[in-house]
Amino acid sequence: MSTNQNSNNVQFSSHLYAYRAKIILVSLSLTSLVSFVVACSIGSVSLSFPELLHAVLELAGGGSPGGVNTVLLELRLYRALSAFVTGAALALSGVLMQALLRNPLADPYVLGVSGGAAIGALSAMLVNAAVWIINLAAFGGAIGVTGLLFFLAYRDFIVAGCNEGRAPTLLLSGVIIGSGCMALITLILSVTPDSQLRSMVFWLMGDLSDSGVSYFPWIVLVGVLIVVCIKARSINIAALYSDNASTLGISVGRLRKILFIFAALLTASAVSNAGSIGFVGLIMPHACRLAWGSDHRLLLPASCLAGGSFLMLADTMARTVLSPQQLPVGVITALIGVPLFLLQLHRHRSHE
Question: Distance between CA 9 and CA 5 in Å, rounded?
Fold first, then answer.
């Protein structure tokens, strides 16, 4: 009888958790939809909801861009979508990096991947390359740093374990490579003509003004999200019981490879799409973890939706605060992220 009661209690708790998770994800999805509508409506020329709906219906029906349609299509719609996929990728990368390093304060840029992307992008800008070449160079630079890190840390961290105290090898390698990348970035900026410096600085601070239609970040985001959600239980076990995870049937080394490669791939796609946008990959996973717990079955999709919504709203502010002048979106995320993170940290410490 006692065994049956325990089984019923476990079943009830599982159903209750699933119901709670559905409510949270539906709420975040609605928040993303509202953020998207706000991003498409607000700008130097505001659109009322009927105008916005009429424009969307025209575009969905294959109408030729003109008037309001042009504003919606070229200046807001694709930019809002780009902001969402970039924010979602950074937030998801942050969750994976925090699980990999078992540190809730890790972020997507902690290993210097963004430095490699910056070197590639700035080098392409220096020779006045086309936008798609700049994006490709940024992605190539990020992947190059990822490969170097994987080579340096493979034996000491990916194959070995945190239980052997070798996690700092990955972090130290990332910090050193990041410092070298910063030196090269400074060198590129010092030899760049003044006419090109503004665009380079905007890219380094995060900028969505030149973002266009790109399917690659969406393919990376959706593909990675599906795989990591399938492995969410294994990530939970590895994050909580890294020392004994192998005895529970988890291939720790293989899981670390997946987390490392996927986190780097998400960061590379986000940085090549919008430049180095800070704090999204740190604040959003941390906020979701404090609000709804550390279960990755919920944390992974929730962070994606929260990160996408946050960056869409931040980019809307970047376009409108000093309209018609536009600010780098990285400035807005930093101005919001610093006090928000300090508040979260203070509340967390006060509850200990």
Answer: 6
pLDDT tens, position by position, 151-197? 877 666 655 544 444 556 777 788 888 889 999 999 999 998 888 88
* Distance of alpha carbon 118 from alpha carbon 139, whole angstroms: 9
pTM of the entire predicted model? 0.87
Report how far residue 92's alpha carbon sits from residue 264's, in angstroms, rounded to the nearest whole number. Answer: 11
Residue spans of the domains in the chain: they are 46-350
- CATH 3.40.50.1820 is held by the domain 46-350: no
What pLDDT, in 10s, does the model give residues 97-129? 888 888 777 788 877 888 898 999 999 999 888
Residues 76, 202, 270: CA angle, nearest 5 degrees: 65
**In this structure, what is the dihedral angle of CA atoms 332, 111, 352, 288, given to the nearest 10 degrees?**
50
